[in-house]
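Could someone model adenosine-5'-diphosphate with this protein?
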Amino acid sequence: MIILKNISKIYRSKTQVVQALDGVDLSVNEGEIFGIIGTSGAGKSTLLHSVNLLEAPSHGQVIVADQNLTMMSKKDLRLARHHIGMIFQHFNLLASKTVYQNVALPLKLLGKRQSEIKSKVQPLLEIVGLTEKQANYPRQLSGGQKQRVAIARALACDPQVLLCDEATSSLDPKTTRTILELLKKINQQLILTILLITHELSVIKKICDRVAVLDQGKIVESGDIIDLFTKPRSNITKQLIHAHLRHELPQDVMQRLSPQAGEDRNPVMQIRFMGTTTAEPINYRLAVNMAIDINILQANIEFIKTEAVGMMVIELLCKPDKLSLALAYFTKQQVDVEILGYAKHTIH
Ligand code: ADP
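Reply:
Sure, complex below.
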């Protein structure tokens, strides 16, 4: 549904030249929810805005629904853009218009008749759960409700593709969850292809089918969301997963953790495995066969889409020379393991 071929973007000003995108190839299938993740400045916004040519690439081709947008006249591009909806972090609603009028706006701009507009807008307000609020103004709505209006407006012209530009980044976690659920619902009900950018792994984890990791304008890794979590390959992906996890690590562990190994420090590692039943035997065998005691710092089952992926952070209570033994054991068991750092011994 979306094909980006060798996209590069160079921003030039009098004082500097910035290469925001560097040879990006991407293919998003019809009906898929595809996420692009990266740290700030990675090129995510530039990439997303290339898809509807809000930001024209310096090089490369953009093909959406079998139409090559980069080859189109301005007039044809204007028409094609009606079928690419977009929502933003700050909603971009018109403050002087009601909920109904905001959603109706794209249809009004297309010169549709009032009756036609009404028959389109009412069901959309229903889908996003705002029928009751249609006469309200944006200032009378919560952040989540504003984003619902923006979603309904983006759907007004029956898009085949919805672009989401950090759409939940200014919402609290609970509202984020409800907006992501709504996006999933419209993805399924309308067979709508969704391309989203975010700096939050939690967003990707919740709804994406596939994901690409962007770093310094290049895609460094892409694939199925479960593989990304269980077998991250690039350093940036590992960092993103660690940042996501560390967020949840207890404060006292964070304080004891250092990147350097040492005689007075225990290795702390994250182990990842599919399913829910593997963790206990692994830890048991490590303790019994290798005489390595384990302190479980964190254990949870992450649900990535519908798949259960076990993640555990453990501290090995052993001298550094036993670490390689433990690592060899994990490799043999096909358990993905990553050292997060070394924690100072606690004084008992
Ligand atoms: P992200 O969305 O991942 O934070 P952006 O796409 O906004 O990244 O930016 C990628 C790079 O391009 C950054 O170095 C940014 O400073 C630069 N950039 C973005 N927009 C412009 C612009 N209009 N003019 C000049 N540089 C820009």
